[in-house]
Amino acid sequence: MGLSFSFLARSGSSAAAASSRETGLGDLPESCVASVLSYLDPPQICRVAMLNRAFKGASSADFVWESKLPLNYEDVIGRVFEKDGVSFKGLCKRDIYARLCRPNSFDGGTKRVWLDKTTGKTCMLISSNGLAITGIDDRRYWTRIPTEESRFYSVAYLQQIWWLELYGEIEFPFPAGSYSLFFRLQLGRIHKRFGRRLCNSEHVHGWDKKPARFQLSTSDGQEETKQCYLREPGKWIHYHAGDFIVPNSCKSMKVKFSMTQIDCTHTKGGLCVDSVMIVPVDRTRLQRF
Amino acid sequence: MAPKNKNPNGENVVPEVQQKKTQALILKSSDGEEFSISKSAAGLSVAIKNMMEDDCAGGVIPLPLVDGGTLARVITYLNKHAEDGASDEDKRKFDEEFLSGMEVDVLCDVALAGNYLDIRGLFHDVCQRIVNGMKNKSVEWVRKTFRIESDFTAEEEEQIKKEYAWAWEGVDSDAD
Questions:
Q1: pTM value?
Q2: Domain that holds residue B9
Q3: CATH number of the A122-283 domain
Q4: Is residue B136 part of a domain?
Q5: Does residue B61 form part of some domain?
Q6: ipTM over 0.95
Q7: Which residue of A has its CA nearest to B151?
Q8: Residues 6+ apart with CB under 8 A from A60
Q9: What residue stretches are annotated with the SKP1 component POZ domain (chain B) (predicted)?
Q10: How far is Cα B101 from Cα B133, in angstroms, rounded to an integer?
Q11: Which among B31, B112, B131 has CB closest to A32?
Q12: Which residues of chain B are within 8 Å of residue A38 when distances are taken between CB atoms?
């Protein structure tokens, strides 16, 4: 059997003899196979590359991958990589997709953005270092503690405070779609002893008196406010601050978000703040984060 | 439903019924079979439409890449979609039945024809069906089912797996 066998041979020559034997997928011309492949999701396209050389060729066709990239992927590259964006020159679309699927740091390492491998949708994580936290420099209130439980290896830990206020904003060329915004928080402080995960809840107080308030607003006027009691010490929980919609892949949209608990009749404490996460609304496998 | 479009032979449309339509043309398959088809049905194929506009062949359009069996199927599809009274729901039902019984080789032939004749709806449906058959299946299984022969050595396969490592990382085990 020749190297590229009937697959490529047929695409150029007459295929009049097609009825003489049964047709397989391997008999379709490469451009046609590439069209078929564009109906698969990206990891599956990559698997198909294992079938044979012709499929490998089809699986890296630019037009297959162009349909998987966000419409405004060039804006995204410009925003995330800034001057580094030139390193994308000459990459095929498949490799651009692969690059964008990595957790790409930007804004001085305080934020990360990546494409969900399967859906090609944009996900983002903003570290506690990328948030404005009232009183963060005062050691009586806040400390930064290293931990492997954060993707940024560091969380802000609140011992106690009267006025709790976390604020953040992000200006980004979000691809069109619906997004949810979550705060990843935990009551209590984790430490490891003999390899076991233990939760120190000594500073945890004040969270059952009043709910915390989560707010979200966008530069095109969307607003949402939620109230929620913080709960379950020792467990990382994603608190939903709200959703926003990006109607068209726009040049840039600004999203502001905050968490507050500013009832000054009582103090609160024992809170770990890890990150803020922005993910497509239909993202169902949140526990991965 | 317009009675002149009714097919006396049941679902397997014999294209001759279209003769009553004043505007008809002949499609000729790779193995020399001729089928008559109304211009409105033929026009659903972008490729045939272009050929009609160029007015090549004076009413007979040769299709050297499509054999008679496949062309008959494609014409059945085109006739249904050009039918005056057919609702979207009718067409959807027809599409489902049209593809559901097809073996892999027929499916591939129809894909090839759909691509070549540029019949978007048909090609879309066939692709979707082929792809559904490939999803979450092992490489070996797909090769066997779709009659694809590997021309890779074991080392090359390993190499490709490495090259595409990003696509495999974190893929749930349910994917296999």
A1: 0.78
A2: 3-97
A3: 2.60.120.260
A4: no
A5: yes
A6: no
A7: A52
A8: A49, A92, A94
A9: 25-82
A10: 13
A11: B112
A12: 127
